Fold these 2 entries.
Entry 1:
Amino acid sequence: MSRTVVIAGMGCAVAGVRSDVGQEDLLVEAGLAAMDAAGIVPADIDASWFGCTTVSANHALLNFSLKLGYTPMTKTQNGGATGADALRGAYIAVASGVCDIALAAGVEKPTDSGLLEPAEGDRAGGSVVGADAVVGEFRPPAHSALYLTRYAHAHGIAPEKLRRALTRLVTRSRRAGSHNEKAALRSAVHEDDVARAPLSAGPLTVLDCCQALDGAAAAIVCSEEAARRLGRRYIVLEGFGAASGGMEGRTTQSYEYLGLPEARLAAQRAYAMAGIMRPEQEIQHAQVFDLTTGGELLAYEDLGLAPPGKAVDYVLDGVFDREGRTPANTDGGLLCNGYQAGASGIRQVYESYLQLTDCAGERQIPGVQRSLVYTVGGAVGSFSAFVQVFGRPAEPGRAAG
Amino acid sequence: MESIKDKVAIIGMGTTKVGERWDVGIEELLDEACSEALADARIDPKEINAGYVGGISATQTLNRVLKLNYIPVSGVENACSTGADVFRNAAFAVASGMYDIVIAAAAGKQKDAGTTGIDMAGDPSTVGMEAMIHNGSVPRHFALYATRYMHHYGYSFDELKYTLARIAVKNHKNGTLNPKAHFQKEITMEQAINAPFIAWPLGLYDCCANIDGGACAILARPEVAKRIRDDYVLVKGIGLASGWREGRMSQKYSFTMFPENVLASQQAYDQAGIKDPVEELSHVQLHDAFTVNELVDYEDVGIAPRGKAPHLVKDGYFERDGKIPVNTDGGLKCTGHPVPATGLKQLNESYHQVQGTAGPRQVKNVRYSLAHSQGGLTGSFSTVVTILGPRD
């Protein structure tokens, strides 16, 4: 990148069934908090990138809600990774010098539709036949189940052991969410609750899968120079990588279903930019996209946080617990915060931002120097994976607020 | 903030044949447009480092169509200016220094919707002004600007109809030189003036067709462009202004100009260092979804004084052989409006005009060309203005 990009302030709305508000209010909730944290007003924003899959740009939702005037606004669109794509747009604009201060924001109110499940899959328009029709009709739990069963088979992992690892992720995330006042689900669950839970797509139970819930998040992305002038605590974008699959997974016999090539590539690109050679040692906190616990499990290997075939062992050894070597999804993940296509990718970064500015309160992990955020959208063979690596500045600014 | 001037080069562009493309799916439209651009740029898809796409909900479709081998592809949506904002984001990606070659593509299969025109069913929960804005037809919406323009500047109905007809006739005539255009025939002043009304005072020939098509641009860092071709075209400035519903809420909204157009143009002029658009622009592409749009756009982008554009239209100022040729490819009126792709299609003509490769449509001595793309509705327009120019 031509110049260092940082995040100087973030905000996040309380997630859940927000029947009390509209999309505008959620954006105000997240956006004002982000601007306050960064110490800016709307007029300071040079341009914005906005994710919201249910409105067209015609609705001027962002500029109206945050009183941004005629500030340039681009709506981004990348399925479940729409929020991450909004951040990427802001990063690139700031890196290029055409913006000094940019806003990346996202909002979704899926509960307004009456559905509580993420509607993934691609509806690109036109007719869908063959493999596309089959895969396109799957929901995320079914996608995840394909990968899990193949993974367990390839590595000789007994079903009970796989199930124990998935349950560990559920209980860990739910406990984490109970410490997050912004989360939708704030009650811990016990292993027995998981054992009794109905199946969604075996081996995943309904407790292994997140719900589509209302939420919003916002980030003030700027040059390091601008952040220093503002004087608030900021986090540094040390690396990011993205990769999109061209549907090879649906058309080649050799697609392995042991992970996502897109995630591996995105991670490699991010690590190369950040100069990370040994992710297990160099990353102390991770936000790993968990549409399902199965997706999260396999992602650890794609991200190099567990060796191939070892993710189950690592999970059962507590590596990704709060007290473990690489605490993950310390805000409860999507499991507790729900899924918002336009906002989840930004909400994931919110926790990294809190951790790296030492503002995570009772969730604070001591000694976090680098945090990784992994977001993914799309479907089998055609995912869009985003990996971001954040670190602390050389000289920290004042505490926010 | 820095200007984008001279940081981004265009090394190739392409468009599909625009029309009722029942023969293809959206993937084929992307393929058609991108293949032409790749051939123009003389590069292999493997050389592309990143992509931006508009008009498809699954961005990975671009990877699949072009076999792009896991490069990042981002999706952009900005209503009718999507194509131009796809280009804008791709330009930023090049200017960031992270990617050498970036592809910007967009396609729309408007006819697959099953309706003629944009279906404005609207959001059932909108009330009041929002309901009026979002529910109903788009021509009705822009008719408001035509009636207000007549009233505010004191033009008679006949004078307005004459002016709008001149614009429609001009664009149809220009389009006959563009084999990619949807319509391939001229129309007469009588036909345009006496056409059935769609939304008074706009008639059949005042409204563009929502139609199928795609377009593509290949962008590169100038250092990389130099190795590929001598006649690459440079981006001189890009402006974007996005409304915040003020126009829907303010009693003072004039309905005789689009603030977003004015602001975006000014940003682009500032970046390009253009102080006198009338003298410094050689060629202009305007978003003529409706002829009244083109009329108001002349004034918004500063190539006609406020309220005086009809006089200039009458004098042939914006004809192919006029002072500032506008919409030499036929504009939206004649080439059609494949909604997400239109902004890129506009740029395609600007690119060829600056490069000197516009064939029979070539305007003499083109230096700077401005391409204006406008999406949205009253109070929430998103206008992208891009200025292209030659390498020095």
Entry 2:
Amino acid sequence: MARRSNISRQTRLLLQAMLEAPLKWQHGYDLLQQTGLKSGTLYPILMRLSDQGLLEATWQASELFGKPPRHAYRLTRDGCAFAQSLEAPGSLDFAVRTPAKASA
Amino acid sequence: MRGWKTCLRLVTRVCLAHAISTMPLSRRSWAVAMEQESHFIDNDFDALGWAIGCVFASYVEGVREMSIYRRTNLLTAIIPVIMSLLALAVVLAVVTTGWERHLQDEGAAAHIFQLLIVGQVPFLAAYLVTSKGRRVLEIVRPMAFQAGALAIAIGSVAFFKL
């Protein structure tokens, strides 16, 4: 497994978004809309998470006629555990930025 | 309006093709994924923004995959161009603001200009050293940019008779 680097705010944002539906395969553009990240930030993070075994990716045939297959992503078991550990109270400043989740 | 939209989509496609070609081979499937995803973005401006981001991502990955040696080579190719442009900016500042034009002898502006020009020498040397083993054309191309930027900076001094 590759080295885990420091977790950026953007990575936390992405992990948080993916943790909301951990079993659901999500697409790049949907994640971009959920997180507000730019594609130039989002994809390098997805690549890193995939390298670290926190994310799995697969090609899915499009449901829309004439559209190409899409790459879909979801957290692995390790990814879910890692994202949850970041969300845990006292884990850096994550709880400060997500008061609703922190108080739940 | 339709022509404008077509133009935006064309630029988007060109950017995405560029992102695929510049993405390191080990990451190529990710670039293809980005390109495929763009087909699901309805808004043309959003699609263009997406494509520009993809180009940025491919550059980031390209630099990440480079060895320290190659990164140094890239950096030493770029820095002299930036220094020449800064020297040009100094010249333009002198011309537009009249900074130190009243001085009989060389002032701070002239010294900054000279330092920016002479300071390129170590970078050029480092560039040549780290270019070892590369094809001549690959080495010469960035040097042509460096020479062009240098010519513009020095030429501006002659042009404005400073």
